[in-house]
């Protein structure tokens, strides 16, 4: 009987054992749930941020499709490129604004500045230039800001010999592209450099080429690569310094302007202006590489205006007429205009 009682007592006692696995399973489920919630939260936040940035950028993108790009218009530039891209051609700068800018620029107190007839000649060409107009200027001068203003729908690029002045000017006016170059020539070496160019007229100094790869002594080949692919509509040679035999002289800039004008991929003509045309270097190199047959006007013996047509790749002569005939034509044009 005693043993039966003990068995009954043990039977009434209930023992509940909790296995550790049950606790681990509950904790694991909570960890997985937290991970899933974290993943979806992060995904939601990233989606929200991306959508917001897209909405912010979209108005700028639509504006760029209407407003002309500030970048250089490469081969095939001008109105044809704008039309092919489906962009609207912007209206030209009002004539009254152009006249006002030219007027006040010509009345400057600066010692070295262009006269009103010189400024008007260049501004007239820029006004008629197809938009966007590619304007290349050799030399940082008093008129640099004026060129940028007159060509406000296009791109104005300035090449300067003084790297420190170029950096200073670009810091003051970051909307203007200024590139510094190293001129290896000297004005006193003009005869020697011209003789070398004539000797290599069918090789390194030919009139149609990519100057980036040229070894001609008169070629400027250290500009940014993309500048050699541009079809320049207007080129102004107003630098580097040309006074004195030790000055760099403008042989290289005039030669480079002549090659760029003749190497255009599309578009027939380039307007090339040479300032300080009363000096020997400017006159002789202008006759040699821009040609008297292309001289349109020479204003007060200071500014020469050439209109240079593109040439075929196999051309090896800058001027259609012989140098003597071209020089005579240039002299007649200078005296008559």
UniProtKB/TrEMBL annotation:
Pfam families the record matches: IRX15_IRX15L_GXM (PF21729)
Residues annotated as transmembrane: 31-50
A Gene Ontology cellular-component term: Golgi membrane
GO biological-process terms attached to the record: xylan biosynthetic process
Subcellular location: Golgi apparatus membrane
Coiled coil: none
Membrane topology note: Single-pass membrane protein
Domain of life from the UniProt record: Eukaryota
Alphabetically ordered keywords of this record: Membrane, Transmembrane, Transmembrane helix
Protein's name according to its UniProt entry: Polysaccharide biosynthesis domain-containing protein
Species, as recorded: Linum tenue
Biological classification of the source: Eukaryota, Viridiplantae, Streptophyta, Embryophyta, Tracheophyta
């Amino acid at each position: 009987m005693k043993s039966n009682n003990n068995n009954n007592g043990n039977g009434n006692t209930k023992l509940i054992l909790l296995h550790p696995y049950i606790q681990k399973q509950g904790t694991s489920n909570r960890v997985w749930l937290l991970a899933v919630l974290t993943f979806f939260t992060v995904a939601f936040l990233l989606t929200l941020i991306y959508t917001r940035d897209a909405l912010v950028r979209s108005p700028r993108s639509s504006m760029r499709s209407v407003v002309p790009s500030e970048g250089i218009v490469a081969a095939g530039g001008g109105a044809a490129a704008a039309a092919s891209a489906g962009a609207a051609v912007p209206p030209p700068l009002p004539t009254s604004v152009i006249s006002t800018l030219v007027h006040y620029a010509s009345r400057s107190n600066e010692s070295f500045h262009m006269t009103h007839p010189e400024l008007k000649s260049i501004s007239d060409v820029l006004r008629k230039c197809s938009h966007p107009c590619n304007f290349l200027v050799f030399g940082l001068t008093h008129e640099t800001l004026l060129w940028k203003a007159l060509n406000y729908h296009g791109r104005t690029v300035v090449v300067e010999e003084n790297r420190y002045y170029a950096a200073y000017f670009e810091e003051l006016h970051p909307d203007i592209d200024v590139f510094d170059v190293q001129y290896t020539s000297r004005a006193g070496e003009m005869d020697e450099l011209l003789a070398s160019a004539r000797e290599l007229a069918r090789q390194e100094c030919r009139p149609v080429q990519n100057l980036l790869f040229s070894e001609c002594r008169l070629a400027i080949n250290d500009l940014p690569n993309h500048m050699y692919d541009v079809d320049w509509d207007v080129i102004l040679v107003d630098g580097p310094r040309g006074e004195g035999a030790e000055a760099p002289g403008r042989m290289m800039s005039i030669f480079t302007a002549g090659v760029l004008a003749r190497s255009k991929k599309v578009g027939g003509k380039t307007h090339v202006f040479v300032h300080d045309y009363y000096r020997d270097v400017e006159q002789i190199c202008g006759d040699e590489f821009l040609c008297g047959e292309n001289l349109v006007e020479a204003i007060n013996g200071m500014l020469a205006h050439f209109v240079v047509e593109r040439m075929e790749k196999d051309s090896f002569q800058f001027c259609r007429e012989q140098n003597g005939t071209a020089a005579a034509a240039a002299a007649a044009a200078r005296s008559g205009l």
